């Protein structure tokens, strides 16, 4: 009995030490998740409603991949760019699509995920649902099915409006679902650059260029949202070992650098824990 009590005391002390070892993160809200189970391993203000900025495009991508899976769309389908999909405000991220030109769904997905192109999001919304309004209605239905109960989407790109918000918990759930259902997402989000015609853009996820085994997922920034990042990394990529994937979602960081410092700290914390880490929370 004394031996059992000693072991329990050691376990309690071990868990307390791990809790104290959580990194200090400069952000309004964040979550760290195990992608295989969807379990939240650590969090701060996970249910706080905040503008998701371009992390919205992960939901747009989820819906496009769902259409492809159901056979209603193909990556090689060529679609026409409408007048309504053209971006005219220079401050918006764009891949500089032209009215009337034909582009493939594949090209649009790369523009959406790698370059965070708002015009790609608008075209894809029209391809999936016929109009922007119909697409946002479908986004919200999909969010409810996924269990994202604290989210409301008003557009496919992430532009700010009071009726467009989510939480770190909901976005973490979305990240887990897309990693489980559509691992091909990482073919895009791991790309370090995009070239489309004479347009060339570096992926804004700085952690892709770090020594961490990061394979994307998405960055976001608008004035109302601050600096946001959803980032994934895999441990044990060797085929003879079971891979562990961790996902961090950071919302409302005060600067571009702070969001990446936060993402790196959370992933490094996850990787530094023993294999019992996931089961102990």
Features:
281 residues, alpha+beta, five-stranded antiparallel β-sheet, two-stranded antiparallel sheet, 8 helices, 37% helix, 19% strand, globular
Count of helical stretches: 8
CA distance, first residue to last residue: 26 Å
Strand content: 15-25%
Main beta-sheet annotation: 5 strands, antiparallel
Strand order in the largest sheet: 2-1-9-8-7
Q: Mean pLDDT, nearest integer? A: 90
Q: Could you estimate the helical fraction of the residues in percent?
A: 25-40%
Instruction: Specify the overall morphology.
Output: globular
Explain what the structure shows.
The protein is α+β, with helices and mostly antiparallel strands. Helices cover 37% and strands 19% of the residues. It contains eight helices and nine strands. It has helices spanning 2-20, 56-69, 105-113, 118-129, 132-146, 168-181, 185-189, 256-272; strands at residues 29-34, 40-44, 78-80, 102-104, 193-196, 199-202, 214-222, 226-235, 244-253. Strands 2-1-9-8-7 form a five-stranded antiparallel β-sheet, with helices on both faces. A two-stranded antiparallel sheet has the order 3-4. It has a two-stranded antiparallel sheet with strand order 5-6. α4 crosses α5. The protein is globular and about 55 Å long. It starts with a helix and ends in a 9-residue tail after the last helix. Mean pLDDT is 90; it is low at 16-20.
């Amino acid at each position: 009995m004394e031996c059992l009590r000693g072991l329990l005391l050691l376990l309690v002390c071990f868990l307390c030490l791990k809790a104290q070892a959580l990194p200090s993160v400069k952000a309004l809200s964040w979550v760290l998740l195990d992608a295989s189970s969807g379990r939240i391993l650590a969090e701060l203000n996970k249910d706080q409603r905040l503008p998701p900025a371009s992390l919205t495009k992960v939901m747009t991508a989820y819906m496009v991949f769902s259409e492809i899976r159901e056979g209603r769309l193909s990556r090689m389908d060529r679609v026409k760019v409408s007048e309504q999909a053209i971006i005219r405000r220079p401050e918006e991220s764009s891949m500089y699509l032209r009215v009337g030109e034909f582009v493939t769904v594949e090209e649009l997905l790369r523009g959406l995920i790698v370059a965070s192109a708002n015009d790609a999001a608008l075209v894809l919304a029209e391809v999936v649902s016929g109009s922007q309004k119909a697409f946002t209605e479908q986004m919200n239905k999909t969010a409810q099915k996924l269990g994202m109960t604290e989210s409301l989407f008003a557009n496919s790109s992430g532009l700010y409006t009071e009726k467009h918000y989510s939480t770190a918990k909901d976005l973490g759930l979305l990240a887990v679902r897309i990693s489980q259902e559509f691992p091909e997402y990482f073919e895009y989000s791991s790309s370090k650059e995009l070239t489309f015609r004479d347009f060339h853009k570096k992926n804004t996820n700085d952690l892709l260029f770090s020594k961490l085994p990061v394979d994307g997922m998405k960055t976001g920034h608008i004035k109302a949202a601050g600096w946001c990042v959803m980032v994934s990394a895999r441990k044990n990529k060797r085929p003879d070992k079971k891979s562990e994937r961790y996902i961090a979602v950071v919302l409302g960081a005060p600067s571009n650098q702070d969001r990446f410092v936060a993402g790196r700290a959370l992933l490094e914390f996850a990787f530094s824990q023993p294999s019992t880490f996931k089961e102990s929370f």
